[in-house]
Structure formats: C-alpha cells, structure tokens
C-alpha cells in the first residue's frame, strides 16, 4: 500500500514499467519458441524426405523395413528431444515474463 497519496502515481508508473517489461519478455520468448518450431519443422521435412528417397531406392523389402524401423526410432527420439527443449523454453519464458512484476510486488511488500 502507498504510504501517502503522493506515492500512488510512482507506484502506478513502476507497475506499468513492470507490465511493459513482462510484455516485451513474452513477445521475445514467443519469437524464440516460434523460431525453434520452424527450425524443427524444417529439419523434420528434410529428414523425412531423405528417408522417403532412401526407401524408394531400396533394393529389397528387408531394406525398406530396416529404413522404416530406423526412421521411427530416430523420429521418436527427435520429438522427445524437441519436447524437452520446448518445455525448458516455456519454463524460461514463465520466469522471464513474471519476473518484472514479481520483483516489483516483492519490493513493495518488503
């Protein structure tokens, strides 16, 4: 709470600055996540096309099955790794976005 009515405009300005900082952090984090998703999609497309081409050139059904098995394993691992990256990015985003406001509130509460 404000100690005097004169402190209210300063508190409001501080909170607006904190909210602005949070909004900037959110936008930057969203851009980083979007860039990560686009890069992952590009890599997946290139890998998937490469595997499809290898399957078309396979000389036997056993080769196709082996390629498909390797493809499924590597795809699962790739998606699991990407999920971990995105989870960490989301946790970092939460910290970055809530940080300015939480810092302002904790200063005021002290």
Features:
single chain; about 110 residues; mainly alpha
Walk me through the structure.
The protein is mainly alpha-helical and 110 residues long. The chain contains 2 helices and no strands. Helix 1 packs antiparallel against helix 2 (61-109). The longest helix is centred in the first third of the chain and has 51 residues, at 7-57. The chain is rod-shaped. It starts with 6 loop residues before the first helix and ends with a helix.
Secondary structure elements and pairings:
Layout: H1 7-57, H2 61-109
Helix pairs in contact: 1-2
Mean pLDDT: 89
How far apart lie the N and C ends?
Answer: 11 Å
DSSP, total strands = 0
| Strand coverage percent | under 5%
Instruction: Catalogue the unreliable spans.
Output: none
Assign the structural class, choosing from mainly alpha, mainly beta, alpha/beta, alpha+beta, or little secondary structure: mainly alpha
**Major sheet size, sense and barrel closure:** none
Quick overview:
With 110 residues, the protein is an all-alpha fold.
